[in-house]
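Submission sheet (multi-component)
Chains listed below:
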Amino acid sequence: MNVGDRIPEVERTPDAVDLFMFSAAAWLLHRIHYDLPYTTEEEGHPELLIHGPLQGTYLMQAAQWWLGTDASIHSITYRHKAPAYLGDTLVCGGEVTTVSNRTVEMELWARKPDGTVTTEGRAVFATGAG
Amino acid sequence: MTLITSDAVAWANQEFPAYSVTVGRSDIQRFAMAIGERDPIHLDIAAAQAAGYADVVAPPYFPYVLRMQAGTLGPKAALAPDGSPARDVPPLETTRAMAGETSIEFGTRVVAGDTITVAKRIVDLYEKEGRSGALVFLVTEFEFTNQRGELVMRETFTRIFR
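Outcome: structure written.
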């Protein structure tokens, strides 16, 4: 593994069932993830929103699936830059920025096919004996 | 004009009692399915045991479920208009909330049967002028420890109100 290596991109297109399962698993009751009339009429969005924590999870998975089961995540920081709506495809990828003895640090992002970044961050994984 | 009133400051200074949750196997399986996990150690006991665990292992970000589920459980009458638990919403004249920055440190993995203690504290409540007007940032820290006192996860989460 080298600095500059790219994580293979993983495309995620969560549908209404995916949004429901995430809200249900977390008991997340925020209406903008399931109540379309509320979301459009009261909050002015065009569609239901894909949860920020679900996008964060997609970033962790893109990195973890590439590194394999011997690697384990040590830390991650991410920030939401633009809303992601039901129907959007999120292309999740990243680039290795630092490689040291037993850790790898990378930039991660989720972007729409038009290039708009919805979530971006940095993560550190421990490699080898996880 | 400031959006952060003395009521909001008093709200931010409140203390939250820590609480403990025993993690069920299906809690982990449900979260793993909801995020489309591929590794069977999160879903299947035999696969988890073959990997050296006593029971199914949670995906790293699973403790999020514990702070949402047990931490916010309450009757429907206790919800704000946007569906969030009213007690999690600072007294502000804002109407919309969004996820901001999240910073997470991971420790020992959660295994079904663990009892996790969740400690919550408000780190900061501040205001900033955004492109579309004033924004209020609420920074909350959650610390999760297991029954052996080991750190499981520490999450600092910013929610933005406008």
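Remark: Helices of chain B lie at 6-12, 25-34, 45-50, 63-72.
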